[in-house]
Amino acid sequence: MGNGKPAQSVDDVQRLLRQCIDAASAENSPLGYFPVLHLEATRELLKAASSGVFERPARLRQTIVVLANRYFVARERFRAGKPTTKTWALAFDASRSPSLVASQHVLLALSAQLNLDLGIAISETGLLGEDYERVVDILSSGVERMRAKLTRTSFLMKTMGGCHCSFDEQFAVFSMKAARKNAMLIALGLQDLSGDELLAAMREVDEDATLLGRRILRPGFTAQVLLAAARMTEQTQSPRQLMELLAR
Fold it and tell me: pTM of the entire structure?
């Protein structure tokens, strides 16, 4: 992954995501939660493309590659001790914290993808209009499946499923309606920029996304109480076991 563009095709994306999952499983690391969900979303997008859902399937595949490469590069730089975007650094740093639950790890990564990378990717590939709306619809379905799977991480989450969902719904970052609008605004704002202006605008987007991510780490009082209770029951399962649950 050293050429700046780890994936050249959607097949590369799936292969590299599996490598990320395998590495996290071997390390028993929460860093494996997101690539499990990313791989599932990629497969769903490709399935829709093959069935004729998208008007421009080639552009959709290009967007999948660009979006995944932003994650791969951020992950590679973090693991090499090099600076990366603040939003992804926040998510990766959080993997070292034993005090977070699985939902926080997943939502930190989703924050980086939806509130930073998605808008930048579609500004580069031009995936706008109805095809963009279809992408977000499919990603939304994936988020809902993720919520259901995370609810099964413990007995407590099964019995308090409504409360658990209210935790992530407190934040605009977890509202796909907000993410849909935000990514489009980012893309439109970046489209006509280049050089230093583009870099400055992308840094500003990164700062905004990082602020949203920090709210995941320090939620309100009610959410903190629920998370503390969830943490006690989740401690019986290792990150490797939770990865297996998310992959089902």
Answer: 0.86
